[in-house]
Structures are given as structure tokens and as C-alpha cells.
Specification:
By secondary structure, the protein is an alpha+beta fold. It has 2 domains: about 90 residues; about 120 residues, Glucose Permease (Domain IIA). The chain contains 3 helices and 12 strands, in the order ααββαββββββββββ. Strands 3, 4, 5, 6, 7, 8, 9, 10, 11 and 12 form a 10-stranded antiparallel sheet that branches. The chain has a two-stranded antiparallel ribbon with strand order 1-2. β6 and β7 form a beta hairpin. α1 packs antiparallel against α2.
């Protein structure tokens, strides 16, 4: 910005010098009178122009600093967004890890695990009394005697375990398998696990029963993806 101040000062000096020379070309008496006035104008002009130009320079520097600060902030936001997108992609494509061990299921991502017959049956019996038929029925029902062991369909973490406050499911368990997939087991007579526990596929998690909105002993089994009920038959092992 110093070059700008110098250029402006030179232009002002040249203009005043030209005016002074013009006055000298006039009458002698005019030269005597106008010379001190011209010199006074030059002195006053430079006296006031200097601080004014300095203030302009200061404001210009402040604007430059604000622009640099805004640019840095935008860069930080952009980098953060890229990191978040990378993290989401890594989670979606990460292999299933067995809880309690470091072993991975080789070459199988969440989407691959649940794309065709990779959930275990929650009971040894495969006798289905009611199929998936939304909006009235969001799962499948298994005919089974009370007290029959209910098995985890896949390894995961117990997200909910207790009594359904709506009275529909009775004693129930909700397992989070990651990747947006969950399984629900309802109308249990007894729960064998609790919220926050890790389970493996085929672990006994409850006993079948007749609690909640139920007309007889059975297991109501649901599969959910991103919070929406889907047909369990698409995911149960053939």
C-alpha cells in the first residue's frame, strides 16, 4: 500500500507545482502575493493528506486481514466436511467385527451381510403362522410353546430390553447390528440379556411367551433397516 501513498503524493505535488509555475508566469505583484499562499497550500495539503492516506492504508490492511480470516475459516469448514464424508463412507463399507474379538468376516460389508439370507433364524422351529403384511403386521410370527429359547439372528448390541410401554410387544428385545439394521423379538416371557450387552448370533437372548398384545404363545420377529420394517424372509438364511 506504500506505493499508493507515494503515487498520490507525487500527483498532488505535481498539481500544486504546476499551479505555482502558472502564478509565476503572471504579473510580478501577483508572484509576490501568490508565492507564500501557494507554499502554504502545499504545506497544509501534505500535512492533512499524510494522515488521511495513512488511515486509508490502515483500513485496507484490516479488510485484507478479514478476507484472509474468512478464507481460512472456509478452508476449515471444507476440510471438516470432507473428513465427515470420509468417516461415513468408511463406516458404510467397514467389515462386520465380531464383538469381543478382533476377527473380521473377510470381504463382507454391512450391505453384503444383509443382502440375501445372512440372518440366522431366531428359533429352531421355522413354522410361521403370520407373514409380513404392513401396515397391519410389521414382522413374522412363529408358532412356539412358551419358554422356548429365542436366538439372536446376528451378532450385535442390545439397544433395548424391557417392557414395551405401548403394551403391544410386551417383553421385547431390540438388537442393533450396525449398518442401519436391527432385529426385534417380542412377546417374550423372560429376557436373558440386558441393554448395552453384546451378543453373538444364535445366543439365547430370551424365552418365548404371551406378553403384550398376544392371543397365545408365539414369537413376533421384525427386521428393520434405517428405522423402517422390512420383510424378514428376504434376510433369513435359506
Amino acid at each position: 500500500m506504500d506505493w499508493f501513498v507515494k503515487v498520490v503524493s507525487i500527483v498532488i505535488f505535481w498539481f500544486l507545482l504546476s499551479a505555482l509555475m502558472t502564478m509565476f508566469q503572471g504579473r510580478r505583484s501577483a508572484r509576490v502575493i501568490n508565492l507564500p499562499i501557494a507554499l502554504l497550500i502545499i504545506v497544509i495539503t501534505f500535512e492533512h493528506a499524510g494522515p488521511a492516506l495513512a488511515r486509508v492504508n490502515g483500513h485496507y490492511e484490516e479488510v485484507q486481514q478479514d478476507v484472509r480470516g474468512l478464507t481460512d475459516a472456509l478452508n476449515v469448514v471444507g476440510n471438516t466436511r470432507n473428513k465427515v464424508n470420509d468417516s461415513i463412507e468408511n463406516v458404510e463399507n467397514s467389515p462386520i467385527i465380531n464383538f469381543g474379538s478382533k476377527a473380521k468376516l473377510p470381504g463382507r460389508t454391512f450391505s453384503e451381510i444383509f443382502s440375501g439370507g445372512h440372518l440366522e433364524w431366531p428359533l429352531k422351529s421355522k413354522e410361521i403362522t403370520q407373514k409380513f403384511s404392513p401396515p397391519d403386521h410389521h414382522g413374522i410370527d412363529f408358532a412356539v410353546e412358551a419358554g422356548t429359547p429365542i436366538l439372536a439372528a446376528r451378532e450385535g448390541r442390545i439397544r433395548e430390553a424391557g417392557v414395551d410401554s405401548s403394551g403391544i410387544y410386551g417383553n421385547y428385545i431390540l438388537i442393533d447390528h450396525g449398518g442401519g439394521f436391527q432385529t426385534l423379538y417380542a412377546h417374550c416371557s423372560e429376557l436373558k440379556t440386558q441393554r448395552g450387552k453384546n451378543v453373538f448370533d444364535k445366543d439365547v437372548i430370551a424365552l418365548s411367551g404371551n406378553t403384550g398384545n398376544s392371543t397365545g404363545p408365539h414369537l413376533h420377529f421384525e427386521v428393520r433397516y434405517s428405522g423402517k420394517a422390512v420383510d424378514p424372509m428376504q434376510y433369513l438364511r435359506k
